[in-house]
Amino acid sequence: MNITIVGAGKIGQVLCEELSERHDISIVDLNDEVIEHTMNKFDVIGLVGNGVNVNVQRQAGVEESDIFIAVTNSDEMNIIMCTLAKTAGAKHTIARVRNPEYFEHVGFIKEALGITRIINPDLSAARDIVRTIRYASALSVQTLVGNRVALVELEVQRFSVLDGMSLSDFRQKYGTVIVCIIERDGKTFIPSGSDNLMAEDKIFVSGLPKDMSVFQQKIGKKEKSIRSAFIIGGGRIAHYLLEALSHNKIDVKIIERNIERCEQLSSDYPFARVIHADGTDTDVLDEQELNKYDAFVSLTGVDEENLIASIYADKQGVRKVITKVSRTNILKVLDDKRLKKIVAPKNLVANEIARFVRARENAEGSNVEALYRVANNKVEVLQFIVKQQCHIVNQPLASLTLKSDLLIAYILRNGQMLFPNGQDSIQVNDKVIVMTTQKGFTDLEDILEV
Q1: Which of 166, 224, 374, 438 is the most buried if burial means most Cβ atoms within 10 Å?
Q2: Rounded distance, CA 36 to CA 295, Å?
Q3: What CA–CA distance (Å, rounded) separates 62 from 342?
Q4: What would the pLDDT profile of 402-442 be if each residue is shown by its tens digit?
Q5: Same domain, 322 and 385
Q6: Cα gap 47→26, rounded to integer Å
């Protein structure tokens, strides 16, 4: 497909990385150095100019664009650019909009201006944080197949019942709950039955929600719910997070150094205790009794401050520590095991757009119904619809030569979830959930080793 992107910042760069291998990408930005860097790094066509200029859009080929994406720092410009692109002939338009005042009327804006999708990295980050808070013992949570399946990230504790357990024993003991992914010593892989779990592994376990609840009780992971949260940074993510937490009985304290933001937060969210102070100052954290809270969320605009504050919160014994990071490359330098939950807004939005692109591919002949990325984007979870012309139907799975690092996790057939073994086969109209470290699958037959 032809895709035009305006804005070569953090999100634009991630989108180029995600989409350029499979699509024709044109990217527009005012900064000539950024455009040159992007063209050198990715297989894209770059154009220096203002994306709101109709002539610049035409030079970028907007009339032939299947998808036009505006991700500059200006909400207003993104909305205007998408409106112009739609008028010029772009089939679908996506605008990044972060301002809560605009987002309250997102439905009206989309309908009135013909924008296909409006994305909000701050709202996506807040929702990710809320999911993590709701599952007290999990590092992350993703629901699949219309919420029928939960994919939960856990850490294997030393001397726990899972430490040293083989996956063949795991399957026998826990039945329909399966270990899909293991992260160990910086490597991410899809395990086989001969693999063993080890202390400090991060594992992604999936199953039906009711089975997952029983599983967590069996392994001693049924922790108390999060009843209190300590937040530093009162920006837009905090706004959306507090809005979501207002529906839960959670004791919230938020530290913000800007007095005007403090006053606004206090007015908008009277249930939260708002403190005007520097939340990155450890003396302030001690004075505000950080160690008595169940969860800590660092949301300042400076990655380094978030990382240091989160490490300090972990040292103080806070059960759930969540860290917002914009520049994820910094994590390669700071490999600290205490940073268990990282929220990267740009990656969340890039994944959302990638799912949208895959959906459009599906409309044009691809068999991917849904796409998710987990384990720091190292693993793709794909949902395929099996069509009549598929060549691997009615064959026992054990007879198929599958690519490495790949798992057929579930089959949805006539509304029932199946947990396949080697004797099961795929049928027409099945929905098949595949997890893999490989990228670029568009058809179920891509799972086969050629």
Answers
A1: 374
A2: 43
A3: 36
A4: 999 999 999 999 989 998 988 999 999 999 999 999 987 88
A5: no
A6: 7
Q: Indicate whether 257 and 320 sit together in one domain.
A: yes
Query: Which strand (E) or helix (H) includes residue 322?
Result: strand 320-324
Of 119, 137, 162, which residue sits at a domain end? Answer: 119
The verdict on residue 266 lying in a domain is yes
Residue 114 and residue 76 share a domain: yes
Alpha helix stretches (DSSP H) within 199-326 = 209-218, 236-245, 259-268, 282-287, 303-315
Domain of 184, CATH number, reads: 3.30.70.1450
Q: What domain range includes position 183? A: 126-219
**Tally of CA atoms within 13 A in the half-sphere of 133 that contains its CB:** 29
| Predicted TM-score (pTM) of this structure | 0.81
Helices of type H across 116-256: 121-134, 167-174, 209-218, 236-245
Beta-ladder partners of 4: 26, 68
Indicate whether 425 belongs to any domain.
yes
Spatial separation of the C-alpha atoms in residues 1 and 4, rounded to whole Å: 10
Q: What does residue 410 show for φ and ψ, rounded to 5 degrees?
A: -145, 155
Comparing C-alpha atoms, which of 69, 77, 28 is closest to residue 49? 28
Task: Please report, for residues 28, 37, 39, 391, the alpha-carbon distance to residue 32 in angstroms, rounded to integers and kept in the order given.
Answer: 10, 9, 11, 48
62 and 131 co-located in one domain: no
How many domains does the chain divide into? 4
